[in-house]
Specification:
The protein is of the alpha/beta class. The protein has helices at about 1-55, 80, 95-110, 130-145, 165-175, 190-200, 220-230, 230-235, 240-255, 260, 270-280, 290-300; strands at about 55-60, 60-65, 75-80, 85-90, 115-120, 125-130, 150-160, 205, 220. Strand 5 (about 115-120) and strand 6 form a beta hairpin. It is flat and about 75 Å long. Residues about 50-55 have low confidence and may be disordered.
């Protein structure tokens, strides 16, 4: 009798474990179905609104609400749809991490966001010129919460090129002058030098959404911002040609340094960086972050 009761108890425990596992599986499935239901409802709402208003729907920007007299188009967008297909403008000011964190707290608390984003559009490419701190804060939230989404409003400005004078004027006109120092304003000289260096070293300078570059490479935004913060390089006394020649001389000087002066160890990563720099002819990217800024200060 004791053996039978024990066996019944064991069987009961097994059944409870199976039920608990089944319950966990059902909970996961239920959450997935809720997520899919929400996504379908959003698609239905966008389609229904499109049919009612007759406004065109852009695959990334969403619903077009209005076209101003200056040809700027206003869109109601989903940040989850738009942001993965949007890049920060290469010549925008550096991100203020403290400001970004404050915006993140406000967005999470209120679940809404005031103000428009200003976006420049060249062919099928999109870049943000006003609202990059809000953009960066929302991106962080989306990385932490796969269900997070919110409606945002965007002014879309058509331009012939991201490096054009027109794009610079849009940046200056859409950013509040109280929040942008004169030194933060885009400088055509620095923009042109970045473009010339990219053509000279196509495997050395990249333009990435993440604003980072791997191994021997450097991101164009980092290169631009570092030169912009260097008073000698950004000074009007130095012409575009002089600055370009200066960067070529600095790159050549680095190429002549022995391995031990550039790296502390012979790790596999350092060796890949060394080999990549020699193959591409671009050595400036071996200096990263603050080290790059200090290096330019010493060289200038």
């Amino acid at each position: 009798m004791f053996f039978n009761n024990t066996q019944k108890y064991i069987n009961l425990e097994k059944d409870n474990l199976i039920l608990e596992k089944d319950n966990e599986d059902l909970l996961i499935t239920n959450n997935q179905l809720k997520y899919e239901k929400n996504e379908l409802e959003k698609k239905y709402d966008r389609l229904h609104t499109f049919k009612e208003t007759g406004f065109k729907q852009h695959i990334f920007l969403g619903k077009k609400l209005y076209k101003r007299q200056d040809k700027v188009k206003i869109y109601a967008s989903s940040c989850r749809t738009l942001f993965p297909n949007l890049s920060p403008w290469d010549y925008n000011r550096p991100i203020d991490e403290n400001h970004k964190l404050k915006l993140k707290e406000i967005i999470l608390k209120k679940r809404l966001l005031e103000g428009y984003f200003d976006i420049i559009k060249c062919d099928d490419n999109l870049a943000i010129v006003n609202g990059q701190h809000r953009y960066s804060a929302i991106l962080d939230i989306m990385k932490e919460d796969h269900l997070f989404d919110m409606e945002i409003f965007c002014n879309v400005h058509e331009v012939k090129g991201f490096d054009s004078e027109e794009a610079t004027k849009i940046f200056l006109s859409t950013n509040n002058i109280k929040n942008v120092k004169l030194s933060d304003n885009p400088q055509k000289k620095l923009m042109n030098v970045c473009e010339r260096l990219m053509k000279q070293f196509p495997d050395g300078i990249k333009s990435n959404k993440s604003e980072t570059a791997t191994l021997h490479r450097i991101d164009k935004k980092e290169l631009y911002n570092t030169m912009q913060m260097n008073e000698k390089l950004s000074n009007d006394d130095m012409s575009e040609d002089d600055l370009y020649d200066k960067m070529i001389v600095i790159n050549n000087k680095l190429s002549l340094k022995p391995y031990k002066d550039l790296f502390k160890s012979k790790s596999s990563r350092n060796i890949k960086m060394w080999e990549g720099a020699h193959k591409s002819g671009f050595f400036i990217g071996l200096k990263k972050g603050a080290m790059f800024g200090m290096f330019l200060l010493n060289e200038c």
